[in-house]
Write a structure and sequence with these properties.
By secondary structure, this protein is α/β, with parallel strands linked by helices. The protein is built from ten helices and ten strands. α3 runs parallel beside α6 and α6 runs parallel beside α7. One of its GO terms (cellular component) is plasma membrane.
């Protein structure tokens, strides 16, 4: 039913990058994430799937403390990256978000030039000592975002003037410019046409060489194409987490099976 490409089935030696234990998330009285424990691997694309409202985005946002920005949101439990508790009081969320980059559903370039979209984070984090170093960082990020060739002759043009697919690759380049270790993507292709989607999916596969990538997607075909691990959420519970090929061909839980065969959601 799902075409699982050969490259997603590699069983490379991996290590745990993110360890979540007994995570609960509440929005006021709404218990949105219930006792979720999961280990997310390095150099792996992990897909979060499940019906609308099941908590995929909420859990994703826990991984770089984006929920801190929502007043009524309360997160309990442990989330460790490389063994360090990211909710420890000493952790600066701004530094954390440079290490755990995020790409959103709708491309959201800053109203600045293409160059400044990329240079913004590295400037804030003092990553370059001079203009030449910053130029290098910008070029490297745009190359990693697979958009360098399309923009190298117009770096001073506004980022908002690019096509939707180009803007999303610019946003991915912006996220990687601060040298993150984890890349979170919340439905990164939902505003893109099939060609731009294919380009971004190809890029996601390349990015996992350097990062742990976590992607929320409503498209099961996309999860099957790009991920090696899949987590199925339902009503705030993590129902099943396994190799993507297993989830899509032989799931353990009847709820997972109902979802992937289109009976729920
Ligand atoms: N900012 C918020 N304030 C209050 N409640 C929220 C907020 N964001 C999400 N929720 C609630 O948390 C629950 C999980 O929502 P979430 O957006 O994480 O689900 P999702 O699986 O990502 O859904 P979708 O696939 O529709 O994007 C829902 O009950 C939702 O109403």
């Amino acid at each position: 039913m799902y075409d699982i490409p050969h490259h997603t089935q590699e069983t490379a030696v991996t290590d745990v990058k993110i360890k979540a234990k007994d995570v609960q998330v509440y929005y006021g009285n709404n218990h949105a994430i219930k006792d979720v424990s999961v280990e997310i691997e390095n150099n792996t694309v992990t897909a979060f799937i499940g019906p609308s409202g099941c908590g995929k985005s909420t859990f994703l946002r826990c991984l770089n403390r984006m929920n801190d920005t929502i007043d009524i949101c309360r997160v309990e439990g442990d989330i460790l990256i490389d063994g360090d508790d990211i909710y420890d009081k000493r952790v600066d969320p701004v530094q954390l978000r440079a290490k755990v980059g995020m790409v959103f559903q709708k491309p959201n370039p800053f109203p600045k030039s293409i160059y400044d979209n990329i240079a913004y984070g590295p400037r804030i984090h003092g990553m370059a000592r001079n203009k030449a170093e910053l130029d290098d960082i910008v070029e490297r990020a745009l190359r990693r975002g697979a958009i360098w060739d399309e923009v190298k002759d117009r770096l001073q043009a506004p980022g908002t003037g690019l096509s939707g697919g180009q803007q999303q690759r610019l946003c991915i380049a912006r996220a990687v410019a601060t040298e993150p270790e984890v890349l979170l993507m919340d439905e990164p292709c939902s505003a893109l046409d099939p060609i731009a989607t294919a380009q971004v999916e190809e890029l996601i596969d390349e990015l996992r060489q350097n990062y742990a990538v976590v992607i929320v997607t409503h498209s099961m075909q996309q999860a099957a194409r790009v991920s090696q691990k899949t987590a199925f959420f339902h009503l705030g519970n993590l129902v099943e987490y396994d190799d993507t090929s297993k989830i899509f061909t032989n799931p353990e839980d009847s709820r997972t099976e109902s979802y992937i065969t289109g009976r729920i959601g």
